[in-house]
Fold these 4 entries.
Entry 1:
Amino acid sequence: MTTIIQECIPRFPQLSIQYDVGDLAKGAELASQAERNGAEIIISRGGTAQLIKEAVTIPVIDVQLSGYDMIRSLTLASQFNGKTAIVGFSNITSGAQSIIDLMDLPLKVYTIRSSEDVARLLLELKASGYRQIVGDVITVDTARTYGLEGLLIQSGKEAILRALEDAQLVFRYLSKNQAISVILNNLVTQEHPNLLILDDRNDIVFENLTDFKQNPLTDNYIHLINTNLEFEQSQVQHMFMVDDYQLTVTAHETTLNNKGYKVYTLEKGQPYQFAQFGITTYTDITIEPIVAESPAMQVMLKNIRALYENHEPIYLLGHADSGKSFLVKHMHQMYSGGGLLLQIDLSQVPAGHLHKIPLSKVRNVELNHIEQRLHDEEVTSFIQTCLNRQIGVFILGEEPLNPYWTLDIELSTMMMPSLADRLEDLAPLIQQFLTDYYHKYGTAAVKIKEDALQLIREQVPQMTVSQLKHLIKQAALNEQDYVISTDTLSRLLHQQSATNTMRLNGTLKEIEKEIIQHVLQEENNNQSKAADRLGINRATLWRKLKE
């Protein structure tokens, strides 16, 4: 909602307004810090607002969900091609049920009484075939952790403005010389050099981090650990990549004076020193859903899983932006059981470095540009080492395997379906993209008209998944209505056709640089996204731009 907040702030020039993002315990922590820094009023919403009220001594204004907000979110949710459940506390579900009954929407409502009910209920709903969960932050975050689509019910501009007006009214009665009380607690123990203790609200009540300049645990890391603690009911261990080192977190729950606490022990591993050689680690911990409504994708996923579970190396054949790497990430998230995914660009790795890679925590490897190391025994030996350790091996390529390659390993080739082979996936892909942009940018569009969808179907033979995603992004940003119209889409397709014309004169290196600059421009100079579309890593992209 930051975009909406930014639009509202200029309407209140007499107030000094600052904003930050953090849900539940993190939001309470940010609010406490804001109070220590002199804030006189806090604005929040839902469960986070309730936690903040307990954490601070200054007024807290709760942003209320309007009926307009609820209708907009439920309309978006009803466009999803699958079973959808509304999960939340009674303040959300009571209003949601009334709107669902009134509008005859195909949605089911489930009311929870505490945040502890969320994980159990979502697992039951997933087992019953539900694929999308609509609710507040904790519900949506837990849903995504379990591989479900999550749709956040957001407060609109009207609700934000109303809260700011209330804050302005309250501000008139506040003293500007409010005393600031800061309590510091700094305890250090030799026995546990890196220790965090969180209370039942996930507030940090003890922190001793000898090996870290600051707490390396993000909100997502803490949420994942706590979700697994609640599910496993025993000690759990997770490994993450932070900057250039591996972070291992061991966590368990304990009780003292009838109060529950979570104890985290952190271990900082040795620096991962190979990133400059095209060896990177995949650190995203949320399970990203994959669209597989089409028979082509269903067969693809079934066969890849069968090969993966039998520890066979897989050769994924397809265009650079056909989703090969995304599919590898999906397999890693769903079936690896934790650990690390290494993405290796063999064109960047110097000879002799593959066997220096520490593999103790690795569960899967993704190998790119193997065509440049076809006769290299080191590559063969490295792959065999991974297979012996039952590490999944995915080799990505754009050309069929040459039968005369000296790679002395039997590979199973799986061809990535083109978008033209996945027509059944077109509508759910577009809906997923629209939902992402609704969350990220606060865009108005929540669905696409059938005639606009038909226009895209006609363009599919010349389009990749990445190009489709870019087109829908531009349409969502430019559409002022709730439904993407044919006019908006036609205009963008015409502009895209005009801007796709590039000069092809000059040397091969000059043409290559022109293409890179073109993709960078389309991705708003985001090098990570540009590198992903081009099928190279950021180090290679940076080097080519400097040449």
Note: The radius of gyration is 26 Å.
Entry 2:
Amino acid sequence: MARPDELTFAPLGGVGEIGMNLSIYGLGNRHQRSWLAVDLGVSFGDEEHLPGIDLIMPDIRFLEKERKNLVGLVLTHAHEDHFGAIIDLWPKLKCPIYATQFSASLFEAKCNSERNPPKIPVTVVPSGGRIDLGPFNVEFIPVAHSIPESHALAIHTSAGTVLHTGDWKIDPTPIIGKPTDERRLRELGDAGVLALIGDSTNAVREGRSPSEAEVAKTITELVKKAKGRVAVTTFASNVARLRAVADAAKAAGREVVVVGRAMERVVQVARETGFLDGVQNFRGADLYGHFPPDKVLAICTGSQGEPRAALSRIANDDHPQVTLNKGDCVIFSSRTIPGNEKAVGAIINGLVTQGIEVITDRTDLVHVSGHPRRDELRDMISWVRPQLLIPVHGEALHLSEHAKLARAAGVPKVLICRDGDLVRLGPGEPAIIEELPSGRLYKDGSILEESKSRAVVERKKLAFAGCVFVAVAVTEKGELADDPEVDLVGIPEKNTAGEIIDEIVFDTVVSTVEGLPRARRRDPDAMAESVRRAVRATINQHWGKKPLCYVHVLTV
């Protein structure tokens, strides 16, 4: 029988994958639990496997069912993979949201950029503050990361304390915001921590992540050396990096021009919340052309190769206000997210072809990760001394490496779980005790689709092998009343022998209809199925692929 104060944890996204983070904590017994949700993020679609899908979100069926027991949603920070799904999914939950000022302000700006902005209230919590949500007391502990106001959450309950790290690193000189609060983390360890739910993103990398201050130094040197125009691209939300680039421009006597809507939005919020205090005013893209080449620096969106972002348009020479020429320089102050390598490579090649110098983290320290490497993970374990460690935020390899490291560091219990696993943290032996409904939702235009939805499944097939539409008009006796209509989409015009595939398919339709027994000709569904099979087989014979095929039989 479950104890009334059993504390449980379940990832509904973000475990076994990078992005789409959603964790839930439950307190109570098997029949009645209060739930606390942490983060509600997205991951991004991949045109190769999911054509037309922009965003992927966690399936929140379970939370919808438990809505009356959901005490709130708490945000660790304002990266898209931690808060990007709120606008689409919050209307299904309508629970209170809690975040610190920068995250709340950036979320408000994001809502305001929507066509019909939803009214989603967010309660602002001070950094280092504590709030009571049902049976949970949640404490916001500052940690360094690549966006202002990242927080680990100490979740205090009657069954013990859990440290949910969120995204973090150890950076004694983070440029913006507070360093990771080692003193408070050690205090928690002294008081006793039941479980550490920890970021595994860099668990395969030895050593320590360098500091933002070192990146700032490198960027300053590169900008000073540059002769022509300079463009820097980075994640829009990395305000410390924006500040470093602005300081580098100032030292080199250059004006800063901000290019890209996401960048403009973050700059505005960072100014409102004080993170760009003392930094010179930035100029709009419309003024870029007014400055001599050696007096301007553009900060651009598009570090991940996004096709409509500023840098992509500049590289393709179709940006209305910003151009680069031979001898100019582009600094990629970012890491390419796995899956985006082709898109980023295409932009870099486009720039190099135009004679533009491209600088990346392959040759210069122009980017550092916001996540802990192995020595930092060891430090966190030694400060917190958890009884149990569960690796999250990572693919299978990252989770496995983090788990091995934790065991070697002397953590008594280490448990690897997957999305949907409900884990008992305590009291008693930690274990996976149940499987909760979990999965993915795809944002397709303005519609949310399940992963098995017809649109998603068929889109992949369409992208791979095209589609054939056939319309056949027959008399009541099953004779052809007119020539069939055949329309091929995404299929080659001719086969290897130079024969027109359109005509081959037309002949196949006619011969199939005429060759059917009279009884099947009088059954429109049977005729349609026969034609569909014959057309797919014929195209496969001439092309080596089977397209989707839709046959409409009309009786006249």
Note: The first strand starts at residue 6 and ends at 13.
Entry 3:
Amino acid sequence: MKKIYITLTCLVGLLTSCNDEFMDRYPLDEITDENFWKTEQDLELYCNSFYTEYITGFGTGWGTSTVAPYGYNEAIAYGDVITDNAAPEAYSKVAADQYNTYVGGGSGSSGWSWENIRDLNYFLGNYQRGDVAEEVRNIYLGEVLFFKAWDYFKKVKTFGDVPWITHALETNSPELYAPRDSREVVMDSVMRILNQSIELLPTKGEEKADRLNKDIALHLKSRIGLYEGTYRKYHPELGLDGTAFLTASVEAAEQLMTGGYSLYSTGNPSTDYNDLFATYSYDGNPEVILWREYSADLTYGVAFSRYYAQNLRHRHGATRNLVDEYLCEDGLPLSQSPLFMGKDSIQSEMMNRDPRLPQTVANFGTYNLQDGVQGANNAPFPNIPGLTGNKCPTGYRVAKWFLNDPADWDRVTNGMQAALVFRYAEVLLNYAEAKYELGGMDQAVLDNSVNIIRARVDMPPLMLGSIPSDPMLDGNYATYCDYVPEAVLREIRRERRVELAFESFRWDDLMRWKAGKFLEIPVEGIKFVQEQFPNVIVDKDVFLSEEGYLLPYYQTLPDGRAFDEEKQYLFPIPIEDLVLNSNLEQNPGWESN
């Protein structure tokens, strides 16, 4: 588990010649003199900055920097604002097929940046120069290969084919003007160097404090293998076989499943899930494989808890589409369960549901901010349009990640809420899905994965012989995806959506399942009950569907969100980079924009 502020403290003591912005980016290009690369300390110093570059957590400072090309704050909790899980006050241009930043962003923008790859490759070209024992320097080699694999994985998810660069380029390097390498070549290379990283990194417990170990790399392998394997299956136009990647995902997961991990639980299904995401430390937590720690004492923090609790960033709410996917506590979907109390109010629809629902989305009167603090008017009723304060356009205020501690809010940019990056529940979900896709599904697989996750919140286990039907969800697949998954796969995907909501997984899942059209499902919020909002005026402050649900984009996006299957599974290369390198070709569908 990573405590990044310790790494930065080391940098302060060791690097006296850095500029004032080194906290954001250590000037690696200045490490060129012949006295460097001689000691283990040099190798460690060089690798330190990659930790904060890739293990971003909630970011630092004001926590306002955004992820390119998606356009949301880099904090893990905000990734879903571009998906069908959430609706921000100002609709997402990505989700509405209006993304155009690549037109004027300049070379190296919108995610098409290669500075970090150059820095990683610079290490690979120099780390053997000193008289450092091979077994020692290979540990830092393992770190760099891990970060390089992670970086390229992100690039392939974004752009598909990208250049595979093996050494640090100079201004006259011919590779600057080379075409892209195929996805097949790049992803095979990613898996190769990630396997090298796993071999070189120390076993968990044997690493230096706050540095990478094998388990962290195995977690990444589990994630990459599932993503690439399923992307290839559901995008047959690529003509690529994903079997090897799915197999790699299963193998990595199985190693972690024998590594002593378990899900965090105190035995209280009504609070354990939410408590997992609202803490200052994950030390000793059996579920957490990688996290980022903050420290006010070292003036290294982030203004996350303050503005998240106030719903200031993005001013978003969960969607009805997400809420409707949660099962009732008997394990049945809404249309099948006698326990479902209907949708006449948020109070009724929250009754008898999967305990993760009221721990992810705040029922009225829950997860209230303390009186007298800024943003307290978000509760007990959310600030839907027509009310003052930071808006929750759907009325489904997000409770996950909510840390109700005014002391941390008062720290502002020194906020210390811990950021969970890799957790064991994801590994179990990766395992279940990959096993299914490989044709290896049986009850033992479910019992060792999905049912462990369900048990934490006291939900009934998923049984292969009695999987309930769900006409609503199957109908959405048939309407928007042109395929309906087998019932067990549908439930594995449901479990993934519910368990990992607001952890920045949903976009990747939609892309790899070729389910981008789910973004076109109408965005709706709570059932509007006038008595609960006596001063809100219908057809002036809020607009309602025929069923009486809030329509947050009725005026701003009257035709609804849109997804173009011919182009939106990949993002475009910045136009300026296409001009600078005539051998680059734009991704399909973006050429005329």
Note: The chain has 21 helices and four strands.
Entry 4:
Amino acid sequence: MLEQAHQDQHTVAVIGAGAAGTLVAIHLCEIARRRRTRLELLLIDPAEQVGTGAAFATQDNRHRLNVTADKMSCYPDDASHFLRWLTRHGNAKATATEFAARGDYGAYLSDTLSDASARARTVTLRHIRGQVTDCAWHGKQAALRLADRSVVRADSVVLATGPQAASGSWAPEELRDSARFVPDAWAPGALDGPLSSGDDVLLVGTGLTAVDVALTLDRDDRTIHAVSRSGTLPAAHAVTPLAPVAPPGSLDGLPLSRLRRDVYRHVRRTLRCHGDWRPALDGLRPLTARLWSALPDGDRAEFLTRDRSLWNSHRHRMAPATAEAIARLRESQRLRVSAGQVATVRSTETGEATDPGALSVTLDNGRTLKVGWVVDCTGPAARLTESTDPLDHGLLASGLAAPGPLGIGYATDPDGRLIGDDTVAGPPMWTLGAHRRGELWESTAIPEIRGQAAGIAKVLLDEAAPLPPAPARRRPVDNLGEPLSTDPSAAATYRIGLQRLMKVRSGADRAFLQAVELDPGFALAHAALAMLGHEGGAEVDVPRALADAQRAVRERGDARERGLVDVITRRIQGPAGDGDAVLLQHISDHPRDALALSMAVPTIAFSGVTDLRDDAYELVARTAPAHAGHWFHTSLLAFIRQELGAFDEAGALARRALTSEADSGHAVHALAHVHYECGDHQDGLRWLDSWIGDHGQGATHGAHFAWHAALHELALDDATAVRRRWSVQLAPPQVRGIRALVDSVSMLWRAQLTGQWTGAVPIAEVLSEVANETLERPVTPFTALHSVIALTAAREICALHRLGRYAAQHSDPVQREVIHPLCEAMAAVAEERWNDAAPALQALLPALPRVGGSAAQREVIEETLLYALASAGRCTEADRLLQDRLDRRSSPLDHRRLGRLATI
């Protein structure tokens, strides 16, 4: 189905390997990988390392990003990508609101490109160290001349050279000629001279560049002066930022005078309502490019003259830690900021030698400063004609490009394609970032640049190597006959994974991973991996897999596939239950969608729909005619019926499914629940042990079947069998990760509560197999329930309170309304405050089904309540609870406990 979209290799030259160029290269690799397009990608830049550019080459950890980590991902649809990189590279406690070091961000860009190019096997990436000085087109190919006079040829070109160098036009000639003048603070080694001496320094400019240079040059025996027209440093970000506030009404089409008035009103209103002006400016960010583009040139020019300084100082803010450091410098008088412009500069001499501190700088306000160095921190040149890059001059002279509005940047179409002097788009040349500032104004921050980079990559490849139309022949299908948007080889591997998932056998994740390696644009394989990582504990980068699924399904996916990816997105990114209605509707529309059915029914692989209403199960049951008695669907029906208390029907359905497929884990699971809920502990234990011995060795969740067997042994009051089961089938290292948390911890806690385990339980060895992130920041309420049990068993009261605070602030209402109070109740258990614990647990029992999972799994909280009631001396209530349970099923353990209560 998916033959090579473009057999001839297409060559793309990206001029500039800083942040903008690296982001373009990353997205070209990603799209070419999904489409399996053969691509030669040339990154041309004099720098030794790609990704850093001038902005992120610094190794001074005091230089921080001025945007929080959650907004700095390379991928617009995977917001936490940078944050996950930070946690893997020495900053395990990084948070979404952290302002990371700029040098770390450069390393992240470089690593992400390396990863993207390694995964894109159809892409050849080359870094050519050199400066492009000229570009000429010969037919459909560009000839790029480098400074060493060599020529590189390409089919498409992306200009990503970043902001222009500062022009230094403000500096008097004597200063420009001085060895004590630093025209570019970020040039390699530029600050070495000032760093090596104790001379005072003058920074011309008071923006973010000046802030970073001041931090670098600070020393006890030096005064740093900073001057600019406004004498205003950037504002600081709030330590605890508020959500952006959008302006009321529409600002579109307003002249600058009215726009200015309405924006000021919006800021004042936000300050009155929220106590902070920042959310007002943040709320303008999505509108800025559109508002700027609509202004006539006269209004734009007026804004630059009158409003730019105020806008920049409030819009481009310092990280809180940076602002605090700058405040300390100013308080100690080591940094002095004032308004002014350089008027004259004079070198003073002592005898025949030039005094090392011999620059006398007079400002336009008459003040004279004696400094050893002057550093240009005024920022990039505004107009293209001021550029010192020969490529810029060559493009303008040849007519391949034209200046943007007011001469700022280049003229481009909405996709970033260069428009020549004939006002039409010329050859396939694009630009982004600072070069589009004249047309977009806000075009230099990573959130804007990454969007432009992704857009250019798509448009470029759509033009250079468009996807072929889908062939008329029949598409491959999955295990139940649903069509798949992939090729036969990837489909065959996907079917193996889906079969293993349907049977609850191990290896489903490996098969899905192989499917995406065969076809990186196969959306459903990515989506299945995301779900297995999210709920099944598979070692998957869940946000990355989900983003891959979303990108792939947009490019190539039918209605069913798009619907399923949407369901999985809601399941992973939304609060518990957010996607249940959509999932059930999807099943109604596509009753043979095996992955959707697996997600809907709370068996072993996934937690199921969180609202266990009869009509939800009935909807799944109504899909039975579409399956004509297939063992998979029959096994799911069996589990549904036992959850609703129809144990005879559930048992018959489970046995029917096992007759057709003895490896059906869902049917085994349903029958295990039937035996337990009906009190058939001896027969259920014999049958389950027999199945585990014959078929259970390859089960994905073998520990869960062992847990069911241990439940029978607990109910039979057989402490020796429980300890033996633990040792052989439930203790680490046999059980790891999420199964250790859900099954091993739960069984230890129940064994301790019921007296089946005397002495200290080996909880520490189990928790060593569970990631701390899973324990204290669980992604689902079902996992959170078991994290609470684990921390209680370990008497980790402080960690319980941390988990409680995490749940209380969670976007998921189940975390807030069930897990948070459960943490408080279980903390009371851990502290043996039984009269506090018992009523709190009792009140929570009706809400527990919202966390998902089965009734037998949630019963651990009822066991804890029973123990708390007995410990509090509330024997009548404990007696009533036991009687209710014995009315449902027999249990030697419960009979023993009932008799013991009668003697108290």
Note: The mean pLDDT is 90.
